[in-house]
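Predict the 3D structure for this chain.
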Amino acid sequence: MHSLLQIKTRRKQAGPFASNGAASPARYGVFVALASVSILTYCASVFWRVSAAEELCFGRSNLFGKVFAQAEFDEPPVSGSFGSKTYSFDRDGRTVHVHYHLINGFQHTFGSALTTFEVGSAASDFGFRVNEYRDAYLSSYGRTFDHWLDTKKDLANNIVGREIGLKARLLHLNGSAAEKYMIAETLKALDDGRAISHPLSPKVSRLPELDAFGCPLLPRPAIASDSRLKQM
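Done. Predicted structure below.
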């Protein structure tokens, strides 16, 4: 009787994954697969919602451009676009001169706000830093000077976005009210300069090194002799 109780106790302590040695790896594999699908599904939903917000605010999406109707950059540069072509977009009766990096600045800031609001600041920070590593090592321009500047801009905008997301949490907002608030705050941050709208902005040169953003392994430009790099 005593030995029977010991066997039952050991089975309870071992848990469901260890009750059958052959089944344990399979159950673990199912768990990992389900977790991976959940993460990928959530990421896809974030991409979709950010893309829809880009279309709403700028008439163009840099993420799912082939899905939404695209405005074309068919107008000359303006102050603040640093030589990039623009197009005019009417937003609530106000004409906005849109350039590619303005949309990208919105993308990072709002995306960070949205994910911080939904899954927390640490998870948002980690996810967006992983994205920068992916761009740096897998994209064709990942070790160029322009990409290095763009990465610093993105990481700085991610911080602004996380602050917006945390503020939305503190206000106890939910659903569409939270999303509208974060979109409005992101646009306001781009307008007042808290979020950076172009990698050639002088503000980028005053940003700290990538290590300070938690990305010590991101590469500096491959051409270290670039005169522009020496000026940074």
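The chain is about 60% helix and 5% strand.
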